[in-house]
Amino acid sequence: MEKSHHSNAIGIDLGTTKTTLSVWTNGHTEVILNEEEERYTPTCVCFTEEERLVGSMAQSFVGKHPWNSVPGFKRLFGAKDSDPAVQTLVATLPYKIESTPNGALEVRVDYRGTRRFSIEQIASVFLSTLKRHAESFLRAEVTCAVLSVPSTFALPHVQSLKAAAAIAGLRVLNTISEGALAGTEYAYRSFDDMNSKIVLFVNMGGGYLDVSLCNVQAGSCFVICTGGCEVGGVDIDNALAQHCIEHFSQKHRKLT
Question: Coiled-coil regions in this chain (predicted)?
Fold first, then answer.
C-alpha cells in the first residue's frame, strides 16, 4: 500500500556530526531513513574532481581526502574571520578556509578545478540531499522545514542557516533551540502526566552543549531559560588527540 502523506514540511535536526530528518504524519513523528536505511546521516560534504558526495559516502572519503572533505560546517554558519574563537576553530580544520573581503569564510576545494564555496553553498549541498530523501519518502514535493539550532546561535548564525536552506529550495518556517526540542519531545511522551515538573535538559552534541530548564505538564513544555557553549564531542576528540601527540613527542624525542 502506498503511503498517503500530504504535508510538505519536514523537521531537520542538523547536528555538527550527524543529522536526523523527520516528518509529522498520522499523529506522530516519523524519522525518515537515508539511502543506507539509517536514522542518522553524517553531516559531511566531500568533493572529488567531478562529484559532490554527501553523508556516509562523504564520511568515507575524509581519511583519504581530508582537504576536500567538509565535516562540521555547522560551526561555521555566520562566522567571521575577525572572531578569535573562529580563528581557533579554523586552525583545527583539515580543509582550507579563506576569507572574503567582508570577513566571511569560504572553503577552497578541488572540484572541477580549484573552487571556493561559501559555507551556505556547502550546507545547501547537504540540505538538498535531505530534501530529496524526504521527497522520495513522502512521494511529494517538499518546500518547507523546521530546523533545530543551538541556543548559542545569534541572528547572523540563523540567517546564514536560512540562506543555505533557501539555496536548497527550503523555506524555513521556524527554528527551535536544541534544548527546547528535547523538552518538547519529553513533554509529548509524558502527555498523560498532569503533574507539573521542572526539568533540566542537557544536550551535548558534536559541537555544542545546550542546557534548557523547562516546566513540563500534560504534554506542554514551557522553556524557562536556555544556555550553552560551543563545546562538544569534537573538541574532546581534538583534546585527546593533542594530548596523545604531546605525550608521544615527549616519550620519543628522537623520532620527532
Answer: none
Residue range 158-171, pLDDT digits in tens:
999 999 999 999 99
Shared domain for 150 and 196, answered yes or no, is no
Grid cell digits, residue 242: 593533542
* Residues 88, 199 within the same domain: no
Q: Which domain holds residue 133?
A: 9-177
Q: Contact, 212 vs 179, CB < 8 A?
A: yes
Average pLDDT over residues 67-91: 93
Tell me which residue of 100, 68, 105, 103 sits closest to 89, measured CA to CA.
105
**Spatial distance between the Cα atoms of 153 and 161, rounded to a whole number of angstroms:** 10
The span from the CA of 44 to the CA of 62, in Å, is 9
- Separation CA 209–CA 187 (nearest Å): 21
CATH number at residue 38: 3.30.420.40
Are residues 132 and 97 both part of a single domain?
A: yes
Looking only at the bridges linking them, the beta strands covering 171-177 and 144-149 are: parallel
Q: pTM for this structure?
A: 0.88
Residues 120 and 135 in one domain: yes
DSSP line for 67-130: GGEEE-GGGGTT--TT-HHHHHHHTT-SSEEEE-TTS-EEEEEESSSEEEEEHHHHHHHHHHHH
